[in-house]
Amino acid sequence: MIYSLLELKQAFSSAYVVQDDARVYVSWMQRFLEPDLLPNDLLADYFQSVTPFGYATLYRLMASVGIDPLDSSKILPVLLLLLTTSYCFAVCMQILPVPAVGFMTTLLFDQNLVMRDDLVSATPRSFIYLLFLAFVYYLLRGNALLCLGAIALSGLFYPPLLFILSGILILKVWHWQDKLPCLSRNRRDYVFSITGLGLALIMMLPYALSSTEYGSVVTPNAVRALPEFSETGRIPFFDDNPFQFWLLGQHSGLLPNILEHPLSSIGFLLPILLRYPKRFPLVKRVTRNVRILPKIALVSLGMFFAAHFTLYKLFAPARYTRYTLKFVIILAAGIAIAAILDAVFRTSKKSTQFPEHRQFLAFGLTVLLGTTLVFYPLLLSHFPNSNYIRGEAPVVYEFFRKQPKDILIAGLSPETDNLPTFSQRPILVGWEYAVPYHTRYDRQIRQRATDLIHAQYTQNLVEVQNFIQTYGVDFFLLDRTAFTPEYMNTNPWLQQWQLVAKDILATLEQGTTPALVSTLKRCSVVDTERLIVLQAKCVTTQN
């Protein structure tokens, strides 16, 4: 609750605050309250089409009782964090029924959750931890009905999670005997697994068979060729550094963000501690359910490499490890820390030589680990790391909000991404919305973006006017620094298309003035310290 309150303080610190990734989902869901918002909007229509059914239904239900989707996206993480915490503790108790261990593990897990913006984003991926832990808990309890419920909800909220759950169900019928894998002799295991796999298949079918007007999923060859997946692209997938690419890459890596907390790495000691129960007596209380951990790790690794092999047919490879392996290593760390402390205290009490010194050592180790566990977040520059975006242009938002609902705004400024959420008006293209996963949508976005770049920096006013007529643009949103050489190195669109930026930079350095500059004084309708809004109709009448 303390962590949630810290996040809520950020979320409601201003009327214009939204979580970074939530923008692409929250904006179109405002249609639940006003169906005529964002009419004929490519961006809103696309994200509406790819949003999981259960996730959209939840927001629709909240909107039906008058809760604005923007407010829902800020309140929902509180409930998600509390439920996720509860299931985390419950799973811990199934593996090692010692409440103190459950507390340490859960606290460490919560800190890791708040150090990243996955859960607080209130996007479909926010439900991964909750649904995954619920599935694991009911699987360990042998509760088939509730386990099936977790599978069904996973398909409704985050379908890629079904691959992980299915893999775990397959491994459920395998056990280790005499250091060799063998099939279970328990008929109930087969019934449980086959029923769960059947439901998972049913939940996958709507997504596997569905066709979209936005084209097929990008192919592996296209992923390698598109600048959108380069280091400076919208989805930075490839990296020249193999270590970064295979281990730490946000979309490509095996272990991204998994070992952020220093205590998490202690989890690697658990297999060693389990081999020495006499020295670490607490591990004797670890139940047979601990076998679920290597199974989760094995399935995650398998899906990680499968996703790399099929590149984006199964979505980003890192999505199959960054959540599940994080839980495995944190749970292992909680057990290992408790086992080590327990062993140190037992040894200090039994020692007859220098007992005071040994007890002082035990006390000091406890204080060190406890202080690190509780107070480590205070050392971080951003905690909670909610990644909330605070809108810095209220005058611009209010101006557009007073315009007709069917206007179209074009701009390369990062502030353009905020307009669908804060102004509820369509934009031609936005960096946050430019995900390159579906071919037809990506082509349209790329065409729009490159045309906009050309129109903003061309010296021919006629070309600007043709651009306005082609797309039906009503307003331009410009950064005041948009026509300076320094802007080329900071704007994400120009960083992605560096060859285009290089040509523009060359013309600017030669002193050539883009055509739009000549319209600034006459056609400006909003002028702030950072931004300029141009009326497109005025530009078309300029000679």
DSSP summary, beta strand count: 8
Counting DSSP H or I runs of 4 or more residues, the number of helices is 24
Biggest beta sheet summary: 4 strands, mixed
Low-confidence stretches: none
Query: Can you tell me the overall shape?
Result: elongated
Spatial extent as radius of gyration: 27 Å
Oligomer kind: single chain
Q: Kindly report the average pLDDT value.
A: 93
Termini separation: 61 Å
Overview of this protein structure:
The chain is elongated and about 95 Å long. It has helices at residues 2-11, 23-29, 42-50, 53-64, 69-95, 99-114, 128-141, 144-157, 161-172, 187-209, 220-225, 242-248, 270-274, 292-310, 324-350, 355-375, 394-401, 419-422, 439-457, 461-471, 492-496, 498-509, 520-523, 536-540; strands spanning 17-19, 174-177, 180-183, 388-390, 409-410, 475-479, 524-527, 531-535. It contains 24 helices and eight strands. Helix 4 packs across helix 8, helix 5 (69-95) runs parallel beside helix 7 (128-141) and helix 8 packs parallel to helix 10. With 543 residues, the chain is mostly helical. 55% of the residues lie in helices and 6% in strands.
